[in-house]
Design brief:
In chain A, 78% of the residues lie in helices and 0% in strands. By secondary structure, chain A is an all-alpha fold. By secondary structure, chain B is an all-alpha fold. The chains are: A mainly alpha (183), B mainly alpha (204).
Chain lengths: 183, 204
């Protein structure tokens, strides 16, 4: 978990006009933002677009942040929302074929993971994750990759804990089936 | 409920206490179920292993510079309409002042030949007449000047005849005198002298 006192100082410094405080916040959370966006969107380039959007939202809204939740939760909330918006937008574009197949294949080829074996494992899971609904995917990713509790996930998604549990169960069942199919 | 579903709920702590006890009894009795549970736990462990993979650091090093570049462009785009409007507004203001200054320069350069007689008052007219003196030629006098000039002469006639300065008085006087016979006796030279006297009398 993030150090809240440090986050508090960084946010206040940024509100007082210290731009480098924002850079420090980004440095602290950029990997978490990227990986959450990547697991949600399923590829590097889409994740990169979401990361830049999230940073812009953070930059514009951080002045209004009142520490009613932790900065960590707030950033995840933004990342989740922006990722789901991006996925919905992408789905519409793909439905109406605004995006050509060459662009899709280019996206798949792009890689930042250095270890080939790890890259293959991640890609396999990414493919499976893309086959479950975004809301289920969100819970699945936050629970299994970020090791969050249902309470934390409910705070990020704004949904009930019961609903989260149900989503997780459905997501896990589907992912296991898909992983077994691919083996 | 299928066994693999029960495993998911058991590991996730979603079974109630009775279901949990029952599942654990089944687990002790079934090596196959134990195998399935181990497989599932390994499957979950796999997520932890790939949750923080080693990546090309250049991408993360460039996130902030790219973001900064992006917000600079955005702020330029945000203010671009303001800049365009400001430029257009400044141009209009500059053109307005240039025209205003040119107008003032033109007015400063006016001489007696170009002055508008519609806008001059009596004292300005007198000054004009003094300055131009003998140089005034009838055909050079503007129309507006002619009416002023006639009114001076007219006024002098009223004064000389000692009558009220209005048309009815003049009509009364004209009815009393046979002007045609008087004018017939005045030659051109005498007329000029009379007019000149009248003008001088009024003006000086």
């Amino acid at each position: 978990m993030a150090d809240n006192s440090t986050d508090f100082e960084l946010v206040n410094n940024f509100i007082e006009g210290n731009e480098s405080a924002f850079n420090k916040i980004v440095l602290k959370y950029q990997q978490k933002i990227y990986w959450h966006a990547r697991r949600m969107t399923g590829n590097h380039l889409d994740a990169d677009e979401v990361v830049q959007d999230v940073l812009l939202v953070m930059y514009n809204k951080l002045k209004d942040f009142k520490f009613q939740s932790s900065l960590y939760t707030w950033i995840y909330k933004i990342t989740s929302t922006r990722s789901i918006n991006f996925i919905n937008h992408r789905k519409v574009k793909q439905t109406f074929s605004f995006e050509d197949q060459s662009e899709n294949s280019m996206r798949k080829e792009d890689r930042i993971i250095e270890n080939i074996e790890t890259h293959e494992k991640i890609e396999k899971l990414e493919r499976a994750l893309q086959r479950i609904p975004p809301k289920q995917r969100e819970v699945f990713v936050l629970k299994n990759y970020e090791q969050m509790t249902y309470e934390e996930i409910a705070e990020i998604t704004g949904k009930s804990i019961g609903g989260m549990k149900s989503n997780y169960f459905q997501a896990m069942k589907k992912i296991m089936e898909l992983m077994n199919e691919n083996e | 409920m299928k066994m693999n579903e029960k495993i998911i709920l058991y590991v996730d702590g979603q079974l109630d206490i009775n279901e949990q006890v029952k599942f654990e009894e089944e687990l002790v009795a079934s090596p196959d179920l134990q195998k399935q549970l181990r497989y599932y736990k390994n499957f979950l462990k796999g997520f932890e292993e790939i949750s923080d993979p080693e990546v090309d650091g250049r991408y993360f090093n460039n996130i902030i510079p790219r973001f900064r570049e992006r917000i600079e462009k955005k702020s330029y785009r945000k203010f671009r309409p303001v800049l365009v409007f400001s430029s257009a507004f400044s141009t209009v203001i500059i053109v307005f002042f240039v025209l205003l200054i040119n107008k003032n320069i033109t007015n400063d350069n006016l001489d007696y030949n170009t002055i508008s007689f519609n806008n001059v008052n009596q004292s300005e007219l007198n000054e004009y007449l003094v300055n131009s003196n003998d140089q005034i030629l009838t055909n050079n006098i503007p129309v507006s000047m002619e009416s002023q000039y006639d009114s001076i002469i007219e006024g002098a006639i009223y004064s000389e005849l000692n009558i009220l300065n209005n048309e009815q008085s003049m009509v009364n006087v004209l009815n009393k005198f046979d002007f045609n016979s008087i004018i017939a006796t005045v030659d051109l030279q005498e007329a000029n002298v009379i007019y000149a006297d009248l003008i001088n009398k009024k003006l000086y």
